[in-house]
Q: What sequence folds into this?
């Protein structure tokens, strides 16, 4: 019987899995709902999110991935089981026919990789391999833009990967643990300091998605609800994009510093070729309004955003498998 390769993109917001022979993928939220004593998995993914929102019975939310690393192996196993149940042909009775290719941050340390490998092998996997996120991204992005080089930035939920890539190699790169979730937290702090209103994370996230922008003249606004930190009462505030602009600029200035630092380490001849193609943005955070224009203004490099940026890694992983079969 044919062997199968499953591409697994393990993220703190979503976990995605794709099957090489079918060239499609499934992704689910990286959330597991457990019983009140944490001894039993009740539901995973979308079902877990819905159950936690309803809270008909007392449940605990478990987020198995933090900053690209596995912090709850039982929770990750439950997510993988759910993905494979939906992804694999019914004739597959065990994992001994399956190889896994895991997409991981380029800054992931060996012990974190070992945790993932040990889990998958314990589930019966035939073999486990790893591919750095920027390399997976580059396969999809470079195919789209018909090039073989560029500076790839994947703005994820918990971490951002930066890499200068030439051909099939990362010439220089790093992982910055300052990403979309941290931007939401910075927005929360901004509203707390200005309005004395504490926003729940989902309200701050809504605010970020609705009107956060790196265009200085963006006139968007958003109404959010929070708790007054002085009297504890619910309070409604209207926040404009212009109020958030300075927070966003301060946040993404660190990205500019990383880009410049990495470029400085690349051999001059290769750096010139990479700069000609410029920056390629992917990951869910790449959709932030004005991020591409801001990075262009700060670096002088052309900036392009991948199509379906939140799915670039798993799609690139499938291309990698196709090219090595």
A:
């Amino acid at each position: 019987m044919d062997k199968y390769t499953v591409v697994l993109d393990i993220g703190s917001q979503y976990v995605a899995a794709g099957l090489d022979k079918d060239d499609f993928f499934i992704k689910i939220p990286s959330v597991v709902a457990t019983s009140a004593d944490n001894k039993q998995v009740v539901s995973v993914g979308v079902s877990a999110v819905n159950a936690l929102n309803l809270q008909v019975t007392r449940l605990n939310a478990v987020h198995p991935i933090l900053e690209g690393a596995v912090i709850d192996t039982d929770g990750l196993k439950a997510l993988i089981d759910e993905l494979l149940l939906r992804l694999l042909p019914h004739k597959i009775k065990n994992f001994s026919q399956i190889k896994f290719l895991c997409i991981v941050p380029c800054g992931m340390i060996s012990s974190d990789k070992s945790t993932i490998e040990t889990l998958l092998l314990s589930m019966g996997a035939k073999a486990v391999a790893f591919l750095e996120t920027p390399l997976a991204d580059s396969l999809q992005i470079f195919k789209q833009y018909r090039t073989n080089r560029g500076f790839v930035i994947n703005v994820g939920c918990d971490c951002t990967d930066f890499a200068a890539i030439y051909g099939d190699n990362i010439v220089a790169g790093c992982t910055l643990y300052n990403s979309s979730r941290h931007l939401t937290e910075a927005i929360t702090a901004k509203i707390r300091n200005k309005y004395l209103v504490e926003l729940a994370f989902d309200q701050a996230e809504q605010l970020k998605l609705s009107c956060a922008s790196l265009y200085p003249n963006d006139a968007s606004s958003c109404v959010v609800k929070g708790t007054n930190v002085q009297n504890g009462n619910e309070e409604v505030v209207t926040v404009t994009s212009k109020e958030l602009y300075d927070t966003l600029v301060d946040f993404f200035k660190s990205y500019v510093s990383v880009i410049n630092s990495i470029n400085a380490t690349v051999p001059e001849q290769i750096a010139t070729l990479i700069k000609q193609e410029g920056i390629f943005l992917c990951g869910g955070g790449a959709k932030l309004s004005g991020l591409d224009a801001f990075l262009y203004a700060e670096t002088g490099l052309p900036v392009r955003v991948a199509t379906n940026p939140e799915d670039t890694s798993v799609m690139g992983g499938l291309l990698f498998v196709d090219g090595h079969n």
